[in-house]
């Protein structure tokens, strides 16, 4: 099939067929290049059959023009039906048989059936004689207005067969001819490309061979007439129904998912994404190994519990308790990975559906949130690069709004954002002109690749060099601002007009909003509009709990609702720039899908990082979690929210329940009389079922009342004096109690598809925006409880996603080939441990709150395996206690000469080896279907031990102190970026108490190994056998802590003195206490006296 300069995309396994027109869009072919008819799907000429010397006709019912290639493709991969009349395609001679062809008559034509790909059918022929053309409407009445001479039929009537073979049938005249005129209306009233009216030349004609029976073409029969009449009646009824529902009068809803009559072969009607389950060759063995591992664990614990160690009962009991806890943790972590899936998006279908040529884009608006706190730890240059990547995103500029939250009220951030808005006028047109990736200038110019690859524009090299010079000047300005901010004036910062900066007092300042771009006709250097850029700093006053990042995000939700009110929200950290300019389109493939998108609350992207060393010493990439665990959750109810790189549905953030599809009424049996059913007690059971169902409905009615009623409203009576009859459905007081005392904001919550309320000007919006970010706005409302980001934990992301899933929503995990977002990770050991400490502290806070998934959210929309995942996410810090005990046991065993296992029998050896093999097999299969390398998997295992014995332990104590004693902990902002060369921070040592526990364990186990080997050497070869098990146990701990030991050495291969002193002191104290107390071995009370049998007298 010739395509000219058009791109044809397709997949035989996915029913994909897309033609993207380029330069030749709308161009018509010359007369000598056309054979008379054009395929209405791909735009190519329709072939002429070699044997019959006539144009190929795919459908014998309506003669809808389709070429042979599209006909074969539709039969193999599509619905096998005509796009116009929905009649199933019959097999033509030379076509391969498909399912359903067995009932058709005709010769098999085996030779051509096996070679149906080899037909050419592309000869250029002259336009056939008009006498061979007909039109699909009966009678001469259809010829008026079509450019056909009125005497045409009379002159050529002898060559054209009669429609009813000379018989009068149901009002059809006996002398009506079979002139066939195909209408140009496409699916749902769409006009196909190339169709025109008013001239006979523009009319596409179907050739009819007078020598063949007319019934071969599907005409001249009563059945055909009845079928056409039925089709017209159905179309008319659908148009009338559409008009009654408020349609535009004659245009059938093109994207109605419930309209089964519309052709699914139309590319714009196809799903925007699809799920791809893991291949059964990989997932089936994985599930079998998991079940086998469960069985082996049963035998393992049977042996461990039935074979205690009498002379080291304390060691044995401690080890068994730890192993039981590890088994429970493994179950909570393993079974949510039972249904892993991957997803694929179709961006071309999204464009076909929502971006029609010549019409405004119908893609939904998106508000993007960027949060920053401290410009000293979050450099303004990094924040500026994130903002620039957002402003240059591949999305309609009038549908993108960027809101930057400065929770530190720093004038440095404000000035840097002002510089960024000016540089964006140069950077954004450059990105879109040359389609570069990534669109964060710092990372684009730092790429060590051939930047001329695929760039053939003659001006690219010159403009790239000029843009790089512009960016260097921009960096100089930003760095000058940073240097100036190092010394704060005594009177505080002043603005250009001489007024004091309102945020000089970080803990006591008013709310601030500045719109930099997107208003007053601000254009870039190419004369195009730019996305809206807004600076926001919420009000802070002493005596108020501002709820840290969660409170800042809720302020952005309200501000954006008042100013732009996009139906979707993307939130990113200040160091996470957009690495894939089509990231928003990827998310819209899920959220805007008319079939499956209504229940999606958010689309989570994986976190990817720049600036990490090649070996990823401290598992900063967290590949196992993002590439294995999250894929497993996506197959259940969706991934958990991880705090950044997530596109939300605004209505889900407002605490509304997911839409529920009503189930059809159950089938009843009418084969038995009612008296028989009542005798059998079915009536009583039905009555009980109805009572139970009514109670359940009453319980959910109260829970869903706000959602159902609020979605039914379109305005609120307090907005500019407007009143609506439907506003009485929800009392104003109830809405204000939930959302706060802002009529403009409350009105925006009632608009499910976003947009601004009528009668609200931009100036009044800014005033209302200042009101909604005041520090007392959330008092006596449901913000942080049921609305917005949920308060009560420093890891507000887990809690917020958990509440959404409890409301019945599902989430989606999107992993495009090019990572959507990239950020910077704390590669320094101390910063990494502090980051893990904050995550674990948040989990402990959730565990000790009412929102703990162990007891919260039952009888809601949360699925059981999803609950397992959330339980695991809040329980894992408690694993630190058994983990520290288990890592201490090897040293104790080596120092005491005892072991946690009695003398191993053959049966015990088989059980232990089977357990180790099943653990290894599970990990190997996970790496296989998750696409994770063995290095990443092993680094994850190592840091699980390092973080477990340090950060998780401290988080557990801090969480208990905070919840039980009210002792607050400070929020530590992770440092972003570094200026001392590549991987400079990897070797930087920062003292923290988190380093003491793992170092102590290392020294204890090393001392134990030395003591065990020395004891074996002194006692002879008989003591080497029992020693191997203890040494293996100790080396297991040392190997897992090796990255920590390497990090302690630093670049100078020297451990800090303070760490050595503390660790040796603790190890010595533990050793001395062990020698003195030794609680696991029976006390020695003197020599044992036995009767020797000799008579001493």
UniProtKB/TrEMBL annotation:
Main location: membrane
Gene Ontology BP, a term: cellulose biosynthetic process
Pathway: Glycan metabolism; plant cellulose biosynthesis
Membrane topology according to the record: Multi-pass membrane protein
Record localization: Cell membrane
GO cellular component: plasma membrane
Gene3D superfamilies, A to Z: Spore Coat Polysaccharide Biosynthesis Protein SpsA, Chain A, Zinc/RING finger domain, C3HC4 (zinc finger)
Entry protein name: Cellulose synthase
Record lineage: Eukaryota, Viridiplantae, Streptophyta, Embryophyta, Tracheophyta
């Amino acid at each position: 099939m010739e395509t000219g300069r058009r791109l044809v995309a397709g997949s035989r396994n996915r029913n994909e067929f897309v033609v993207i027109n380029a330069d030749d869009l709308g161009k018509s072919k010359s007369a000598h290049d056309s054979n008379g008819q054009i395929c209405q799907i791909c735009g190519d000429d329709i072939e002429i059959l070699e044997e019959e010397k006539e144009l190929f006709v795919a459908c014998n019912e309506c003669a809808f023009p389709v070429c042979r290639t599209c006909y074969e493709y539709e039969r193999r991969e599509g619905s096998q039906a005509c796009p116009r009349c929905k009649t199933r395609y019959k097999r033509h001679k030379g076509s391969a048989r498909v399912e359903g062809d067995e009932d058709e008559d005709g010769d098999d034509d085996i030779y051509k059936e096996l070679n149906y790909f080899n037909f050419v059918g592309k000869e250029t022929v002259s336009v056939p004689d008009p006498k061979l053309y007909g039109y699909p409407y009966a009678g001469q009445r259809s010829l008026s207005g079509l450019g056909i001479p009125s005497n045409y039929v009379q002159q050529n009537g002898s060559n054209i067969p009669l429609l009813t073979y000379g018989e009068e049938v149901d009002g059809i005249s006996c002398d009506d001819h079979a002139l066939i005129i195909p209408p140009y209306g496409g699916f749902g009233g769409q006009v196909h490309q190339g169709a025109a009216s008013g001239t006979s030349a523009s009319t596409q004609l179907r050739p009819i061979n007078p020598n063949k029976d007319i019934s071969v073409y599907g005409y001249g029969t009563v059945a055909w007439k009845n079928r056409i009449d039925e089709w017209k009646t159905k179309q008319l009824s659908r148009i009338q129904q559409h008009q009654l529902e408020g349609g535009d009068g004659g245009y059938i809803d093109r994207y109605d998912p419930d309209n089964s009559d519309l052709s699914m072969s139309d590319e714009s009607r196809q799903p925007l994404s699809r799920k791809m389950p893991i291949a059964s060759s990989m997932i089936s063995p994985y599930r079998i190994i998991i079940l086998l591992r469960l069985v082996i664990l049963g035998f393992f614990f049977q042996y461990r519990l039935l074979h205690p160690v009498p002379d080291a009962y304390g060691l044995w009991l401690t080890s068994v308790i730890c192993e039981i806890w590890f088994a429970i943790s493994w179950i909570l972590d393993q079974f949510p990975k039972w249904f892993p899936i991957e997803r694929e998006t179709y961006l071309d279908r999204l464009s076909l559906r929502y971006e029609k040529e010549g019409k405004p884009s119908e893609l939904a608006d998106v508000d993007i949130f960027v949060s920053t706190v401290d410009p000293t730890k979050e450099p303004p240059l990094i924040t500026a690069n994130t903002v620039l990547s957002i402003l240059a995103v591949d999305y309609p500029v009038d549908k993108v709004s960027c809101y930057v939250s400065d929770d530190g009220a720093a004038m440095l951030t404000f000035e840097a954002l002002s510089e960024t808005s000016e540089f964006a006028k140069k950077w954004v047109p450059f990105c879109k002109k040359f389609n570069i990736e990534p669109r964060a200038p710092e990372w684009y110019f730092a790429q060590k690749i051939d930047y001329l690859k695929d760039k053939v524009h003659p001006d690219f090299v010159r403009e790239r060099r000029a843009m790089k010079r512009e960016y260097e000047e921009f960096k100089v300005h930003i760095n000058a601002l940073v240097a100036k901010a190092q010394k704060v004036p005594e009177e505080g910062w002043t603005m250009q007009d001489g007024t004091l900066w309102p945020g000089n007092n970080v803990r006591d300042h008013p709310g601030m909003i500045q719109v930099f771009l997107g208003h007053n006709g601000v254009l870039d250097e190419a004369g195009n509009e730019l996305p809206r850029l807004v600076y926001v700093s919420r009000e802070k006053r002493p005596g108020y709990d501002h709820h840290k990042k969660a409170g800042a995000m809720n302020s952005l939700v309200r501000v954006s609702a008042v100013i732009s009110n996009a139906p979707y929200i993307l939130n990113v950290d200040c160091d996470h720039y957009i690495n894939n300019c089509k990231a928003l389109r990827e998310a819209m493939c899920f959220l805007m899908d008319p079939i499956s998108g209504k229940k999606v609350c958010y689309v989570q992207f994986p976190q990817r990082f720049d600036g990490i060393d090649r070996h990823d010493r401290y598992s900063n990439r967290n590949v196992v979690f993002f590439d294995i665990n999250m894929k497993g959750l996506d197959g259940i109810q969706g991934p958990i929210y991880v705090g950044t790189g997530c596109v939300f549905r605004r209505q889900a953030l407002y605490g509304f329940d997911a839409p529920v599809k009503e189930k059809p009424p159950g089938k009843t049996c009418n084969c038995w009389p009612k008296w028989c059913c009542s005798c059998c007690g079915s009536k009583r059971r039905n009555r009980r079922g109805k009572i139970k169902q009514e109670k359940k409905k009453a319980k959910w009615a109260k829970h869903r009342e706000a959602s159902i009623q609020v979605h039914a409203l379109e305005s609120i009576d307090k907005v500019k004096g407007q009143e609506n009859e439907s506003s009485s459905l929800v009392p104003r007081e109830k809405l204000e109690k939930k959302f706060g005392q802002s009529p403009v904001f409350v009105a925006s919550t009632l608009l499910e598809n976003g947009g601004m309320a009528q009668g609200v000007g931009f100036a009044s919006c800014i005033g209302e925006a200042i009101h909604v970010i005041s520090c007392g706005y959330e008092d006596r409302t449901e913000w942080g409880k049921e609305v917005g980001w949920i308060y009560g934990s420093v890891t507000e992301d887990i809690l917020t996603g958990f509440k959404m899933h409890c409301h019945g929503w599902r989430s989606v995990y999107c992993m495009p080939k090019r990572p959507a977002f990239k950020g910077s990770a704390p590669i320094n050991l101390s910063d990494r441990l502090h980051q893990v400490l904050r995550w674990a502290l948040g989990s402990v806070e959730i565990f000790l709150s009412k929102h703990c998934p162990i007891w919260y959210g039952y009888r809601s929309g949360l699925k059981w395996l999803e609950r397992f995942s959330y339980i695991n996410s809040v329980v894992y810090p408690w694993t630190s206690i058994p983990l520290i005990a288990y890592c201490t046991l090897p040293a104790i065993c080596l120092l005491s000469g005892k072991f946690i296992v009695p003398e191993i029998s053959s049966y015990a050896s088989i059980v232990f080896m089977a357990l180790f093999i099943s653990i290894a097999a599970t990990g190997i299969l996970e790496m296989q279907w998750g696409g994770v390398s063995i290095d990443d998997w092993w680094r994850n295992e190592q840091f699980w031990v390092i973080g477990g014995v340090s950060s998780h332990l401290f988080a557990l104590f801090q969480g208990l102190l905070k919840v039980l004693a009210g002792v607050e902990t400070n929020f530590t902002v992770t440092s972003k970026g570094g200026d001392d060369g590549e991987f400079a921070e990897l070797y930087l040592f920062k003292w923290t108490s988190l380093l003491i526990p793992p170092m102590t364990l290392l020294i204890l186990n090393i001392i134990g190994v030395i003591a065990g080997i020395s004891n074996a050497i002194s006692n002879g070869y008989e003591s080497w056998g029992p020693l191997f098990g203890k040494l293996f146990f100790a080396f297991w701990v040392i190997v897992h802590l090796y990255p920590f030991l390497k990090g302690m050495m630093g670049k100078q291969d020297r451990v800090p003195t303070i760490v050595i002193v503390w660790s040796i002191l603790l190890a010595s104290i533990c050793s001395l206490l062990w020698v003195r107390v030794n609680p696991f071995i029976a006390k020695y009370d003197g020599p044992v006296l036995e009767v020797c049998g000799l008579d001493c007298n």
